Amino acid sequence: MFYFIARRSFFAVILLFVVSIFTFWIFSALPADPAALTCGKNCRPEVIEANRIRLGYDKPFIEQYGSYMKGIFVGRTYGEDESGVHCAAPSLGYSYDRHECVSSLVAKTLPVTASIAFGAFVLWMVFGIALGTLAALRRGKWPDHFATVFSVIGISFPSFFLGLLSVLFFVIWTKILPFPNYVGITENPFEWFTALILPWSVLALLSASTYIRLTRNGILEVMNEEFVRLGIAKGLPRKKLIVKYVLRAALTPIATIAGIDLAFLLGGAIVTESVFNLPGLGKLTIAAVVNSDLPILVATTLISALFIVVANAFVDIMYGFLDPRVRTK
Amino acid sequence: MNTPLLSVRDLHVNFGTSEGDVQAVRGVSFDIDRGETLAIVGESGSGKSVTASAIMRLNFGADIRVSGSALFEGKDILSMGEEEVRKMRGSDVAMIFQDPLTALNPFYTVGNQISEAYTIHHPGTSKKELRALALDAIEKVGIPEPVKRIKQYPHEFSGGMRQRIVIAMALINQPKLLIADEPTTALDVTVQAQILELIGVMQEENGTAVILITHDLGVVAEVTERVLVMYAGRLVEKASVIDAFASPTHPYTRGLLNSVKSLDSDRHSRLEPIPGIPPSLIDLPTGCPFHSRCRYAASLNGRCSTEVPELKAVGNSWSACHLPVDLLAAPIKESL
Amino acid sequence: MSDDLILQAFDLKKHFPTGASKLLQRPTQVVQAVDGVSLSLRRGTTLAIVGESGCGKSTLARLLARLIEPTSGSVVLNGVNISTASSKELLKMRREIQVVFQDPYACLNPRHSIGQSIGTPIRIQKTMSRSEERHRVFELMELVGLSHEHYNRFPHEFSGGQRQRAGIARALALQPKVIVADEPVSALDVSIQAQILNLLEKLQSDLGLSYVFIAHDLSVVRHIADEVAVMYLGKIVEIGSPDAVYGAPAHPYTKALMSAVPVPNPQAGAKRKRIILTGDVPSPVNPPSGCRFRTRCAKVQDICAVDEPLLIDRGQGHPVACHFPD
């Protein structure tokens, strides 16, 4: 098992390295001149050239990549003179557009996205698995039909539509909720909660529909397994059979998919954050796209990749703990 | 008192499928005594496994209808409440399945699953006692190094070993009846020999009655006393094993025996297969289910295709065939 | 003399690497699926290879039909070494040797009609026009007992026996001289098995085919084989005529195997003495030294762990790989 974890982690690091090089290369290969983007339309060539040197865009690609990576671990100072800007480790670049270190932008936005992602995750897992289990156990009866209808709605409605609809209903018409205005959980937990309840629900509704189907089909499949029949033949009480035999087997593969989905969401729920006006990573990314703010885009891409690679490794290792067949191979 | 341990009467099982109603079992009746070994033989689709599951009330699903009765020690299993059936399963009546590779729960250790089989029916047993029981059970079925083995997971065992574990589990509560559904079909012959011997030994020790479901006539001949032959959901012959093999009465049983290539038979002697294929269970022929493949059907002027033959006594056996008794009882060589 | 031999194998070995991933260059383990098998098939006869799961019989079948490449050793078909053949030569060789598989359902394309499937080898070899092909397929279907109306039906509409007939028809499409049949009747019901075995025998006498017949069911084999080879852990332990191997088995493993087969005769069964082997087959990754059967053998001596017994005639009239044969 230890060897398995070590090997899996080693591969994750290698993969991250490859992904980071690739990301960096894509952005440097863009036709846009990153230095020209650092100042407005009527920029003097001298300023552009000065900025190019300050930001290191004059160096060869490998050297740029090297200093970026080094910056992540030890921090980085842009420019040599007193006007130089220092970004402390982990430095992820400097946004000229916003005159701010990318790392501090990320530090502000990541907690927002994390709040959205984890809340939605908990909600959809609980809801999806509960409803999926119910649908499988009452197959062909009304809980099953309800779950089917629910899934279809969740899958066919786009998130912006559901988002706007919920704002319209809960905030504007019925005024049950105040207009979402994000504050940190440490500042005012109640306001934090009221701001997030709608985005959580919308995201959860969308993903829950997938998990309802995964759970339902997984359970129905496991119910046909010979070992479940043997469990019944042994005289296991139904509740114990469902929990110890059916759910254990049906949910193990689902847990792994869930890990990846969560990681994906941590990279920023772009549409949802925009609809609910939440200052998260997704919104930061969108703004960066609009303003051609390359350093931010490089950073958010790398962060998303980091989450996904780490989640993949984590899920694989988890699988080893959950399924003895993987563990002792 | 001479009441049988289990007495099945007029058992019917139907499955509704998208293609139509599958009549898997149609009017099967038989008895089994305490400590007896009874074989149910038939090919795929004959209804032998469905019969076995019906006794355990294991066939479920939206569209399954079971009728008839199965009296176990005088109580009808088919009309018992859920909880009563549950208490019967694994304690009075235990079951072994065909594929030992998939029959064990892959997520729990073998020891856990064996002691679970006991604790379901004996709640409150101490951990220490359970461990001792599991060790004892696993040792009895001939698995070496029990202390090490009970901590392992099913995938760490070979197919034969897993079947031993399933047997250990089935017998831990000393059931009165063991239903073995093709217990050795998935195993190699040398392993099959091991498992059959084990079942025999365990049966003698506990006085358990065994219903052995199989398609292998060799296995039937070696281990059982009485045999039921099924074809397309019906019982076509009921006999002692000696009679069934020495003087089979039903044309299907005869055909089946002729199809079997015995180790004692000559090389390159021509086999005598049964022509044609078994009927579809959705679109069953009228009359005798075997008539389309039967060489005698023509001689009975269409009776076989219109009238369902009932089981009738032929010597010591029972046979569901319209042929006259003297023809059915005639030695194989003359009638073929 | 050797003209009479249509297929020969010399010291065939197939080792599959297994274990840790190749990326990290960890020392890999090797499954010795087939480890030094030599045999020969006489024209117009049937060589049966029997053994239990994991003995390497299916791998051997694949090697003989050149579906996989041997690790070492060679296969000679009709005087031509096919183990080193180029892909062009292989295509030609496929006309001479064909395979029938255990599960015909798995190897008939579900989207092709039976007629199309049977004609596939002809289309691959490009030896006939479309109408000639159709004509030939009808001929083949008649040969294996399928009627013309089956031509446009799909595999799922067929019973197991009919599918196996189609599988045989396809194997015969190119008029091969050798058929390698890998458990051709194991998936079928008893009454259908006999139909297929009779068909195979009839085709052999009508077309002069030679068979390599792989099976785990020993009773099936006795009926069809002219020579029987018994395999254990990648090696042949005994080879001879069915009468010799079944009637007077000399290798302890063969004896145990034969005695384990249930006899459909209740009176004989009780009298027979059964040898029950203990334990499981050892792993082919790390087979026992010397004789591979020694860990389960009742007659084991010190020499068995040191000296591997060769497959030679030790006075039994047929080759046995045992230091102490009966």
CATH class term of chain C: Alpha Beta
Domain unit count of chain C: 1
How many helical elements of chain C? 12
Strand order, sheet with most strands of chain C: 6-7-8-3-9-10
Rg calculated over all Cα atoms of chain C: 21 Å
CATH class group of the largest domain in chain B: Alpha Beta
Biggest β-sheet description of chain C: 6 strands, mixed
Q: State mean pLDDT of chain C (0 to 100 scale).
A: 88
Q: Biggest interface between protein chains, with counts per chain? A: B-C, 49 and 46 residues
Could you state the order of secondary-structure elements of chain B as H and E?
Answer: EEEHEEHEHHHHHEHEHEEHHEEHH
Report the sheet-strand fraction of chain B. Answer: 15-25%
The description of the largest β-sheet of chain B is: 8 strands, mixed
Proportion of helical residues of chain C:
25-40%
Q: Could you name the CATH topology of chain C?
A: Rossmann fold
Account of the protein in words:
The complex is a heterotrimer of chains A (329), B (336) and C (326). Chain A contains 13 helices and four strands. Chain A is mainly alpha-helical and 329 residues long. In chain A, the strands form two sheets. A two-stranded antiparallel sheet of chain A has the order 1-2. Chain A has a two-stranded antiparallel sheet with strand order 3-4. In chain A, strand 3 and strand 4 form a beta hairpin. In chain A, 37% of the residues are buried. The mean pLDDT of chain A is 86. With 336 residues, chain B is an alpha/beta fold. Chain B has two domains: 219 residues, Rossmann fold (3-Layer(aba) Sandwich); 99 residues, no CATH class. In chain C, strand 11 and strand 12 form a beta hairpin. In chain C, helix 4 packs across helix 5 and helix 4 packs parallel to helix 6. At the B-C interface, helix 8, helix 9, helix 10 and helix 11 of B face helix 7, helix 8, helix 9, helix 10 and helix 11 of C.
Quick overview:
The complex is a heterotrimer of chains A (329), B (336) and C (326). Chain A has 329 residues and is mostly helical.
Notable characteristics:
heterotrimer; A: 329 residues; MetI-like fold; two-stranded antiparallel sheet; two-stranded antiparallel ribbon; 3% strand; globular; C: 326 residues; alpha/beta; Rossmann fold; six-stranded mixed sheet; four-stranded antiparallel sheet; 22% strand
